[in-house]
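Re: the request from the purification team.
They wanted to know what the chain is likely to look like in 3D before they choose a buffer screen. I agreed to run a prediction and write the result into the notebook, where they can find it.
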Amino acid sequence: MSAPAPAKNNERAVRSTGSEAGGTWMRARVGDEIVVRGTAAGVIARDGEIVGLRRPDGSPPYDVRWADSGRVTLYFPGPDAYIRHLVTGGNHVTAR
């Protein structure tokens, strides 16, 4: 997986670069994917599905089911994390 393009000013998508990536600009919905970058460029350290929100506006922290273990944990994203908004369309799921 690769990082999504930065959001335009009029989009609600999450910015994926800079200090705001894990901060106040991050908004998610249940079903979105959270990706935590590894220490090397382009390497994914961990990813999971957001299964619960703690705040009505979709800001962190999130309940995440991690793909590598299936465990659900409370996660406070840092600047190395970004959200992939997944949109269902027909019989497939596409990243937004």
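For the purification team: The chain is about 0% helix and 40% strand.
Please add any questions underneath this entry.
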